[in-house]
Amino acid sequence: MVEYFRDLKVAGLFLLAAGLYGQEQPVPYSHKTHLALGLECNSCHRNTDPGEFMGFPSESFCMGCHQTVKADSPHIQKLAAAAREKKPLPWVRVYGIPTYVYFSHRVHTQAGATCETCHGAVRERDVITKEVVHNMRSCMACHAATKARAGCTTCHEER
Ligand code: HEC
Ligand code: HEC
Ligand code: HEC
Ligand code: HEC
Ligand code: HEC
Fold first, then answer.
1. Is the peptide bond before 90 cis (omega within 30 degrees of 0)?
2. How close is the Cα of 77 to the center of ligand 3, in Å?
3. Is residue 101 in contact with ligand 5, taking CB distance under 6 Å?
4. Where along the chain do its domains lie?
5. Whose CA is nearest to atom 6 of ligand 1?
6. Per-residue pLDDT tens for 68-116?
7. Distance (Å, rounded) from C-alpha 145 to C-alpha 150?
8. What would you measure as the largest C-alpha separation in the chain, in angstroms?
9. Is 41 in the pocket of ligand 2 (CB under 6 A)?
């Protein structure tokens, strides 16, 4: 039993470390570097219909520049191989809420919430970490502050 709790504690510390320092991604992509080039969030993250999900960019889009930029880098060669084989890089997900909760990006951006409100200073970050907490309490707090609907079925299916 003691053993079990100790393991849990260690696992907890690892999770904490991963949350703060970021998971290692398949290639060291930096938002800071790329946003400084004049790209915008929606150059890469398209909120296609019906608007719940934010997409991830295709490797062929990246290769528009990387055909020539840093083409000798082993990271870029990995990216090039993914584009050639049409095998998306397995980005490690940073944010996520349980599937039993309904959440739509479009509803929120149309209501005026910015990416930074919910994801922090992405433009300044080399590595994205879960720097903004999203759980029922934080969703509810903003819904109260903005007078958005907050009945249970707003976010959960009726049972
Ligand atoms: C050149 C393409 C590109 C641009 C421009 C870009 N991103 Fe990203 N974004 C990515 C890639 C690739 C990943 C996956 C790797 C990672 O997490 O760093 C990602 C991951 C993310 C994630 C983590 C998603 C998750 O849950 O795993 C967030 C949040 C995000 N981007 C927000 C933004 C915001 C906000 C902007 C604008 C300020 C932006 N991005 C601009 C390519 C881009
Ligand atoms: C508008 C052009 C452009 C696009 C589009 C672009 N990049 Fe870049 N990328 C750059 C530039 C410029 C650098 C910095 C090169 C340097 O350090 O000299 C860079 C650097 C990188 C590096 C670091 C390479 C190394 O070894 O130092 C990685 C990894 C990378 N980009 C991945 C991506 C990924 C993944 C995408 C698509 C989501 C992408 N890039 C899209 C221009 C671009
Ligand atoms: C009201 C808060 C909120 C706003 C505003 C918001 N996001 Fe998110 N974002 C989230 C949550 C919560 C998740 C996790 C969603 C899930 O797991 O279903 C997420 C996930 C993501 C993902 C991973 C893919 C996905 O859809 O699950 C990306 C990429 C992302 N957001 C980018 C952005 C960008 C770019 C903007 C601005 C245009 C933005 N977000 C605005 C809360 C927000
Ligand atoms: C930055 C403040 C903010 C945060 C954080 C936020 N919301 Fe919202 N949300 C709003 C606003 C404002 C609306 C109302 C939009 C409207 O009525 O046009 C809304 C609307 C919604 C709706 C649609 C309600 C309807 O009337 O159909 C759902 C579902 C929802 N939010 C879920 C969530 C979940 C789940 C989270 C946490 C992961 C969350 N929201 C976090 C501000 C926020
Ligand atoms: C604005 C969105 C929102 C509303 C409104 C909302 N929830 Fe949630 N709920 C969430 C999110 C996000 C989670 C998952 C994250 C977490 O556990 O905090 C969640 C998780 C839960 C869970 C699982 C908790 C667990 O620990 O497993 C229950 C039970 C729950 N909600 C009940 C309710 C009830 C009852 C109401 C009405 C009083 C309600 N929710 C209203 C967003 C919402």
1. no
2. 29
3. yes
4. 22-56+91-156
5. 41
6. 999 999 999 999 999 999 999 999 999 999 999 999 999 999 999 999 9
7. 11
8. 57
9. no
